[in-house]
Amino acid sequence: MSGNKSSSRLVLGILLLYVLPILACNFPFPKRSPGQTIDLQNTLPAMAIQRPEAETPVPDHEGDLSSKVEDLTPIAQADITSVQRPEPPILDADGNYYTYQSQPGDTLLAVARRFGVESSQILTSEPLHEGILLSPGTELVIPNQLGDPGYAKYLLPDSEVVNSPSVLTLNIEEFISDCGGYLNDHQEMVNGRWMSGVEILTKVSFENSINPRLLLALIEMRSGWVYGDLADSEQLAYPLGFYVPDYKGLYYELVLTATHLGVGYYGWRSGDKVSLSFQDGEWLRLAPGLNPGTVAIQTMLSKISTRDEWQRILYDDNEFSELYTRMFSDPWSRAANSVTLLPADLAQPELELPFLPGERWSFTGGPHRSWNAGSPRGALDFSPVTGEPACTTSRAWVTASAPGVITRVGDNVLALDLDGDGHEQTGWVLVYLHIVTEGDTFVGKSVAADDQIGHPSCERGNSTGTHVHIARKYNGEWIPAGEPIPFTLGGWETQVGERYYQGSLTKGERTIIANPGGPSSSLIIRGD
Questions:
Q1: Cα(267)–Cα(292) distance, integer angstroms
Q2: 162 vs 66, 297, 455, CA distance in Å?
Q3: By percentage, how much of the chain surpasses pLDDT 70?
């Protein structure tokens, strides 16, 4: 009997040694101690650490701003409201039903979740599938089961939250230089190298796909660094006011900012986030007719504010909206002159698996976060089957899934622009993570489908297994791997599992199940 137990333990030990190194975590931060990693993972989707009220007053820069830059002179109310915002839902005379005009990016399922009803309870002029993108302006009649949650004012267009085509008119470096504040001179150590304020803002904006205008406005509102001087040395650690231990400085505070903006934006987009919690323990049911951009702002500021502070900043004093408009002019006018982020007829271009025909790879990660806790389940993981050590830069090549132009490369990330205009903010973009590139891979290089672009690795983040992580964006918005636009590679369509990293790829009658251990059931051979 004891011999059988010893044999079983030996087999189990061998299996663990094989499986555990292949497990991969795509959290895109430098490696930290286990305690620090758990702390951040618990903090990003949750409330920020409570901070002493006296340490982070919301600064009032009205006098400083208007005298510092010509753009910050008061703007007439007529200019601020010149562009029509989305139509809010209209209640009938008895207060029983809303009439709601769908917004770009809406699905029937998401709308139902926001209004607290079942999809079958929504009345439409013709049957609609839960998962498809609705045409903007589609009229939906929805039972009122929420009463009047309040705070229904639209704060920002969606295009002002994500790193969208509207950003192309902004030169980040020139703007920060012209403002002349401390941000222009700020430097700090990030991932082992000194970075300027401009570099940090650009890095966070592109990696998280968050609009730099919004980040700049939040920096100015919280610390005054865009136009003013450094108030005191203590402000260097927490310029946005999250007060998360071990994650200090502008870079990590901006990452937390981008993360919470994403939690609100994509949570509202999917209909999974319908309420806010504040630092003082209060909570709020969100008004059902809001747009993702508004919920992003509401969510982020709820993590560093009490309910009363939040109400004053966003609604009573309109501090945020007025500051934003003075800094960057009317965002709704800019949105009206930009493209629709997610048109109803949006379809994924033809994409191939990110490796060459005949090679053996494993589908090791089903749909999980495209970037971090603030992004949707839009990424897939593939690991080469080469017999190499469990965590190394593989000799295998990652290949371009479609023709395009490389718009960003570095820090083990490569962005491939598929519309060829060289801008990551426009059209379809593929983002590859944990990739090690070689000398002939550079920004601006055009590649054809199947061109070699780098090697899968464990580099960047806390990965413990060699693989490549691939995700999609459209007009700067991360696209989930499932409905309404399933991630399809070489005819293999993604099915989303119940949990992160679970899921499958289906092609005809064949199905491959994602498994981080890389068993035969997860093996995928292109062209097989």
A1: 8
A2: 27, 12, 29
A3: 84
CA dihedral 461, 463, 469, 472 (to 10 degrees): -40
What's the token pair of residue 70? Answer: 């010509």
As a whole number of angstroms, the distance between CA 180 and CA 170 comes to: 16
Q: Position of tokens 């009206």?
A: 336
Torsion of the alpha carbons at 316, 321, 324 and 329, rounded to the nearest 10: -130
Q: How confident is the model over 63-81, as pLDDT tens digits?
A: 333 334 434 433 333 333 3
CA angle 342, 329, 295 (to 5 degrees): 45
| pLDDT tens string 349-399 | 999 999 999 999 999 999 999 999 999 999 999 999 999 998 999 999 999
DSSP state, residue 113: H
CA 299-303-308 angle, to 5 degrees, is 90
Amino acid residing at 439: G
Nearest to 222 by CA among 211, 213, 231: 231
Q: How many domains does the chain fold into?
A: 3
Residues spanned by the domain of 469: 360-525
User: pTM to 2 decimals?
Assistant: 0.87
* Same domain membership, residue 455 and residue 371: yes
| Residue 276 covered by a domain | yes
- Mean per-residue pLDDT for 126-147? 93
Residues 445 and 504 in one domain: yes
Residues pairing with 276 in the sheet: 284
